[in-house]
């Protein structure tokens, strides 16, 4: 018994020597637990909501509580922990000791230092067409607006973002995107539907704002009544145009142009009724005859491909507003405003603060904030080329043309994107020019080129023989006739050319068009022989070539022909010859060569070699003659197609006067003389 009592006393003594600990409750937790408050921030020192927090103990075990004790607050036993925060691939970690009732740790996700993204917002409709004149605004997750610089947005913090798209004051689209969605540099927002009210461009709103400020000037009353009336008349017109924008009278349509809302898009055009059946025009299910329609609506049923009432194109000169272009009215208001400012006293605050107004540039009309570095000429050129490319693209729809049609569309899209700031405009314009040039050179169309020279007999050409001025006039008349310039509007005033001469009409045409001139003394000298310098000058006039400075041959006389001889040498019509004599008579063979080169008549040698037996040939011209192919070109009528920048001959007129291949006969007659 004593033994057990001793053990009990010993146990009580040991208990009395232990440190005193209070096991009080805090809700469901004991007092040796503490609260760990975790905050996760970005580089901008703003909290990142939605970050995943994981807590590890000193053994590396995940001890993250299954639920929050409070928002971003975790209850943990006293001890050392590693806190890890992750968000969208970014990670931050921090070691912390929990040793009191409340403990804090702040983690920073360093996203901006290495992952800044710059991007543009591209708005498109359901068919993928760019929508211009819509205002975009980007906000971070704390609803702070991110300011764009020249249409470019830059974000450097992980998180959710929002883009709002406005048409004027109307919100047409609001969508969210992730930080990683804009790595490509473009955020494309698809606006559902077909029509969107277009916001008034800066060219109108800025000019109108300045004009209204001028009207509020204290010295405005001192301006002459006539200048004020003109100014206020133009101000009212521009104000009405801006109001029409705000009222939605300008809208964006599927095909990239702006149209009035009046009318419905259908199968490539617009109309002001729903359908047409059995002589009746249906609107909302109700049939109307042609005149009933007018009585009901005040206008006749109509179809149109450009919209009705208000519309405009990129250069702002083509389409009208009450008979004149909008750009006309804006520039008229600028002129009127400058006249008013000029009539105010020099000491006027308006004169000092506003100064002299300038015409808005093209990109001010179209809202191109991002291309201020490009001049007005470049932007207008881009828009003009787009219009040309679209017309060329729609010219044909066959399988041969698809290659060039696709290339044109790709270049059009690239240029449109560049105009919106997504890409280099100058490079896009260069690519568009190339696509247009390739399409023009490879249109697959059939062309016809007539012969313009004949032999001296049916069997001989006399390639080394000379050429009279009368014969030269006939060659010129042949080329002018093919170019549609066969009307001689003036009389022949040469003493030695009579109406019964075989060359009368030829001399009349050649001289009236300024290709040939007479000799001193009032004569034409029809039987005189043509010299090399004369032929070169005539060829330059035929081909529209300009004279060129220089005197490579060191010609000491005949200065009137030297600039054209220099042009012929540099253009490859003649070769370098130390013995070149401008007065030497030109041969018929060399005449064919020089004229062919001047007007761009080339030889398809492969075709000639294959078909020469049925072409016009001469006994005194064989393949050994240096002018063989040139003479074949000058004396044969052929048809050709342009493909891959080459002219491929397809057929020729045979010796019996018929086409060698009727499938390729009678193409469009070309104009050798521009």
Rg computed from alpha carbons, rounded to a whole number of angstroms: 42 Å
What fraction of residues sit in β-strands?
15-25%
Low-confidence stretches: 1-30, 193-198, 251-269, 304-323, 367-375
The tally of strands reads 28
Domains, number: 5
Largest sheet: 4 strands, antiparallel
Distance between the termini: 138 Å
Oligomer: single chain
* Strand neighbour order, sheet with most strands: 11-10-13-14
Helix content: 25-40%
Task: Describe this protein's structure.
This protein has 674 residues and is α+β, with helices and mostly antiparallel strands. The protein has 5 domains: 25-109, Immunoglobulin-like (Sandwich); 117-194, Immunoglobulin-like; 202-262 and 307-366, no CATH class; 369-442; 448-669, no CATH class. 32% of the residues lie in helices and 20% in strands. It is built from 17 helices and 28 strands. A 4-stranded antiparallel beta sheet has the order 11-10-13-14, with no helix packed on it. A 4-stranded mixed beta sheet has the order 27-26-25-28, with no helix packed on it. It has a 3-stranded mixed beta sheet with strand order 5-3-8, with no helix packed on it.
Structure described in brief:
The chain has 674 residues and is of the alpha+beta class. The protein has 5 domains: 25-109, Sandwich (Immunoglobulin-like), CATH 2.60.40; 117-194, Immunoglobulins (Immunoglobulin-like, Sandwich); 202-262 and 307-366, no CATH class; 369-442; 448-669, no CATH class. Helix content is 32%, strand content 20%.
